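Team,

Forwarding the record for the chain on the shared tracking sheet. I've put the sequence and predicted structure together so nobody has to dig through attachments.
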Amino acid sequence: MKDLTSGNIYKNFILFAIPMVFAGLLSQMYATIDTVIAGKYLGEVGLAAIGATAPLISFVSSAFWGLSSGFSIYIANLFGAKEYRLIKNTVFTGVTVFCSVIFTISLFLVIFQEPLFEFLNVDKSIVKEASAYFTVYVLGLFLIMMNTTGLLMINSFGIGTFPFVMSVLSAVLNVSGNIFSIIVLHWGVFGVALSSVVAAGIVDVCYILKFRSCYKEMGISGHKARFSISSFLSSASYALPNMIQQMIMYGAGFMVSPLVNSIGKSATASYTVCQRVFDINAAVYQNSSKTLANYIAQANGGKKEHLFSKGVKVGFIQGFIFTFPFILICALFPEHITSLFFKDKTDTVALVYAVQFLTYFIPLISINVVANLFHAFFRGLGSKSPLMVSTAFGTVARIGVSYVLISKMGMTGMFIGWSASWGADALVGLIYYVLFILKSKKEKGKLV
């Protein structure tokens, strides 16, 4: 375990971030390989079946990504304050509540999937395949979400290497499972979903064993964890704002998806590819920014506010160094990258959409790097308003611009709306950060 606020900050950031970035990349790479396998062996129908409900799944998952993210920041604060017994009670309580709620929501989604598919404008020709994928994936969602929860809470202890190892394991299990289920057993998209769920369950067991090891190192292995409402309520002030912020962010994709699906299955297939490429790039800067969030949380818990500005500076430098090579590769080789996802060149329309996104819009992700770093800073502080307001502005921009332009420009309008959300989010985040700095200087001047 590691206190990120002690020692050389550059060394601490880079050593913590590298395994985290690779862990995030591996997680996205095996999801991408899933999509490549589906595209190569199942064609446009397979891609569209996976992507048709992806915004809905992401929207539901975002609630628990947000909860887990905020929850882990609270854990990082407790770790900085050396409140180890309270950590054990809080983790036990949080995981119990999360699993129960996720599984309940999953059952609801499966039961009412027909009206949900109608809202999403899922193409009639892919409803059967989309339903098979959706049902299996959603019923196993609590296992998949616990991977994220385990990763983030282990991060809060200053551990970056173990999640990377788990990502390697998950990738191997997932890809091998997909190859076997699709190529050997011919299970189609059902096999893609099942492989993800089985891999997640195995990784969850590994995270449980790792927590036992951490508790032993903390000297609390003999302390019996108990369900604590007070611990859960204390963590809620961190977790709930993050949950709302994530739901607002992914709500935009959910609201725009009916428009994309209404264009046709080629648009849905291309959007699946674009989302995967975006996720790979985002995995780099989002996981890099977790270093900043945990650093700020530990500094805040340890009453080391004077370290904030230095952490932000190093976080920005690191974020751009990590992200730039991936953006450059996508922009220079869009045809080579997108062609990996398609069975043959008969999927011409979908391929053209995807190439356009990589060529003209992936470079604009650099704006989202800035927005994400401001998110990390305020998330580490447990500050609610900046996260919510900046994300809300980004969401409104994406939905508004998309609804105006998609009818006139098709997928190009959707891409412009997506990019507009990054700019609006970054601008509002910058304003909040400047206000925070000015307020801090003013308060410091009063103390002097």
